[in-house]
Amino acid sequence: MRLPHVPAETEGLEIGIVGVPWDGGTTLRPGARLGPRQIRDMSTLMRNIHHTLGIAPYELAAAADLGDCPVNPVDLMDTMQRVETFFADLQGRGIVPLAAGGDHLMTLPILRGIARGRPVGLVHFDAHTDTWDRYFGEHKYTHGTPFRRAVEEGLLDPRRIVQIGIRGSLYSRTDKEWGLAQGIRVIEIEEYFALGPDRVIEEARRVVGTGPTYVSFDVDGLDPVYAPGTGTPEIGGFSTHEAQRMIRGLRGLDLVGADVVEVSPPFDPGGGTALVAATMMWELLCLLAERVSQRRS
Predict the structure, then answer these.
(1) Strands 96-101 and 15-20
(2) Minimal CA–CA distance to 220: which of 130, 159, 145?
(3) Torsion angles phi and psi, residue 135, rounded to 5
(4) What percent of the residues of the chain are helix, what percent strand, and what percent coil, each to the nearest 5?
(5) How much is the average pLDDT of 270-286?
(6) What strands lie across the sheet with 120-125, from one edge to the other?
(7) Exposed / middle / buried, residue 116 (Cβ in 10 Å: 0-12, 13-18, 19+)
(8) Among positive and negative, which fits the CA dihedral 99, 70, 142, 24?
(9) Out of 14, 38, 121, 214, which could bridge 274 as a Cys pair, Cβ 3.0 to 4.6 Å?
């Protein structure tokens, strides 16, 4: 977003934009490790003032590009420790994170870094719940499992999770059951279209309430006509404009961080999906900056 690139140790920062160039949790079509680079490139199209909200984020909060979080492309567990350590350091410095992925498993170590000791709520835009248990026998950590692990570890309050846009075929009839049993509010795409984006966000606000809340936006929540560059596309999703309306509807919540994930440039070399991701990050940045300003005052 043409922000200065500074070290995370820089004094006075309030919002840190961070890339997590890693796709070690991907189970089928890789490439999301290249997402942050392309998102960063397309983000130069973002400007200074939100055209409908009137928010000028750089006037409200000290924001910077902190570069990419350290990762280990050949070691999943080492990467998760590196990501957790990086984001825990941001938390300790009072820096609110806005992350670009990378596959969706990265949200788990981010939450470990910023939510230990105080479970947070979650507004989750996605085609998939990512609350499945194990892949390939005993493997607990993939981009399909982060929110199950986060609930199990006490990082998320399941009664304050809302998942929007869920659709697609399942591996088994029990794939839906775990999350619902925990109290997660799942809005499948059929319900989404029946309600419309404004009523869906009213429901999301009811679910997360006034407590600290994280936002995670998987670009495969969008219909693939808008975001083809992703590893697990599912047809029949919401549009980019509907996504913008929903994010804007989160204004005023106690947002403590956010991410946009699963951009895979090999499936969209022209950068359209990355531009979508950068724009969603801009929408989130405006809300985060306003919230930071409110906390300060």
Answers:
(1) parallel
(2) 130
(3) -115, 145
(4) 40, 20, 40
(5) 98
(6) 63-68, 15-20, 96-101, 255-261, 213-218, 120-125, 156-166, 185-188
(7) middle
(8) positive
(9) 38
State pTM to two decimals.
0.98
Q: Looking at domain 15-296, does it have CATH number 3.40.50.300?
A: no
In tens, the pLDDT along 187-236 reads 999 999 999 999 999 999 999 999 999 999 999 999 999 999 999 999 99
Distances (CA, A) of 102 to 175, 189, 203: 24, 24, 28
Please name the residues in contact with 236: beta carbons below 8 A apart, sequence gap of 6 or more.
167, 189, 223
What are the angstrom distances between the C-alpha of 80 and each of 77, 93, 196?
5, 20, 36
How many helices (H) and strands (E) are present in the chain, helices listed first? 10, 8
* Polymer length of the chain: 297
Which residues, other chains included, contact 247 with Cβ-Cβ below 8 Å and sequence gap of 6+? 215, 217, 280, 283, 284, 287
Structure tokens at 50: 């939100």
Q: Give dist(CA 241, CA 236) in Å, integer.
A: 15
Tokens of residue 275, six digits: 């531009």
Residue pLDDT, tens place only, 125-172: 999 999 998 777 678 999 999 999 999 999 999 999 999 999 999 988
* Contacts (Cβ under 8 Å, ≥6 apart) of 291: 96, 252, 253, 254, 255
- Among the residue ranges 116-120, 216-220, 275-279, the one predicted with the least confidence is 116-120
Total Cβ atoms within 10 A of residue 250: 20
Residue closest to 123 by CA, chosen among 290, 238, 284: 284
State the alpha helices, DSSP H only, in the chain: 35-42, 57-60, 76-92, 107-115, 146-152, 177-182, 189-195, 197-208, 240-248, 272-296
What is the residue whose two structure tokens read 């794939």?
175
